[in-house]
């Protein structure tokens, strides 16, 4: 499993993903699930992936090949697509085709493959966008009413987002919120694991403004996790029923 | 959907269930999901239900019929079963048979029916027990390491239980923990709804010591919910990253 979350805020985009990948409980590995595509000053796109690794890796590789191809144009390269919406369409189509191909192969074994993506980005002159792309290639967007999107093991970490994330939330608070959301998920579900990848794209920066890998023993993350545990316990103690 | 949670603590058993039942999004009703079977001073059993209403209602009715039957004996009546383990077996078998019957009927329509139960209780001279009974009739028990069991929409409300519930938790704190666990679930999932049913069986009381229905506008529950929101927001604000 996986947990990835993206926020669309007035000040920018915030993304956080874990790295645990497993094929059965005795085959656990670490794979990056956050990918960057950018031409600084022109366009920036971040993609986070959940689901079958063979689907997501192949889809990401195909998107990169299409960017690098000598005949790349605005209908094939997500960096040349004139809008983020068109880029999301290309990504959706690539995901759907890849998934269908692999799914057909696996059907012979009575297995299936599925995957979903979160796409965040901005193109010069355009708005910041945050999409959730479904396995079939269709997608939805984050809005003012629902400024966050999640893929993978999303339930454990949703209550804290429901309570604190609004479009006007500051980037500092947003980073805290996604990290605490991940912290709850890590505690409750074995299939989500450290290290984590976090990225911030500030509004109109047109490049990834901050990227950080948070390793298992990261003292800052641990301190935050312990402070949150303490805050929850203290809050719990103070409440009267 | 549904959310039910049961705790097995040194001081007693604590149960909480919601009442929302839905068949599709436009057919929502309120049904009690917590059932009591007791002979005060001798045996007390509480059952909470999740899943297909036709399965759980029929299974509960059959358990009651078996108790009331003139030829009820220790192999058919859960109140006559010599141990809680044997009572859990009767309940498991009744659930499995009922589910199978209904499932076969629904198979013709390419549909299926499933249900699971939490059973809590104590018999004179025996230990307090807390079981989770699966649709197939097999079951697991709560232990010192895992003093709580959940059925239905369990993920949103698990983080708070993971953090605060230990076997030595007081009954007052336990009631608070299950109510806050429910509060998180109510906020994040539409298929779980008020009113709530809460019950406490104190150790060796051999009867339900406390039962409470919490209605939608309950001022005490609302105050607790708001105090918890405030505690979370305050805790969130104080944490530095």
From TrEMBL, chains A, B:
Entry's CDD domains?
Answer: proteasome_beta_bacterial (cd03765)
One GO cellular component term, please give it. proteasome core complex
Which first-to-last residue range defines the signal peptide? Answer: none
Which GO biological process annotations does it have?
Answer: proteolysis involved in protein catabolic process
Q: Where are the transmembrane segments?
A: none
Q: What InterPro entries does the record point to?
A: Ntn_hydrolases_N, Proteasome_sua/b, UCP009120_prtse
Return the protein name.
Peptidase
Lineage, highest ranks first = Bacteria, Pseudomonadati, Pseudomonadota, Alphaproteobacteria, Rhodobacterales
């Amino acid at each position: 499993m996986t947990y990835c979350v993206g926020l669309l805020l007035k000040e920018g985009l915030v993304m956080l993903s874990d790295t645990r990948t497993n094929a059965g409980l005795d085959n656990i590995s670490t794979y990056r699930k956050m990918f960057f595509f950018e031409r600084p000053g022109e366009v920036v796109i971040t993609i986070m992936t959940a689901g079958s690794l063979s689907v997501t890796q192949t889809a990401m590789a195909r998107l990169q090949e299409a960017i690098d191809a000598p005949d790349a144009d605005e209908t094939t390269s997500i960096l040349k697509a004139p809008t983020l919406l068109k880029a999301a369409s290309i990504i959706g189509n690539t995901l759907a085709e890849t998934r269908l191909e692999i799914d057909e192969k696996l059907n012979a074994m009575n297995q299936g493959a599925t995957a979903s993506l979160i796409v965040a980005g901005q193109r010069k002159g355009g708005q910041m966008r945050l999409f959730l792309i479904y396995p079939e290639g269709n997608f939805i967007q984050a809005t003012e009413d629902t400024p966050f999107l999640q893929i993978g093991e999303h339930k454990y970490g949703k209550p804290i987002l429901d309570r604190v994330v609004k479009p006007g939330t500051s980037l500092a608070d947003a980073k805290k919120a996604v990290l605490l959301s991940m912290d709850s998920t890590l505690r409750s579900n074995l299939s989500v694991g450290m290290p984590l990848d976090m990225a911030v794209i500030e509004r109109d920066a047109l490049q990834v403004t901050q990227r950080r890998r948070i390793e298992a023993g990261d003292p800052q993350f641990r301190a935050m996790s312990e402070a949150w545990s303490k805050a929850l316990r203290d809050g719990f103690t103070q409440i009267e029923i």
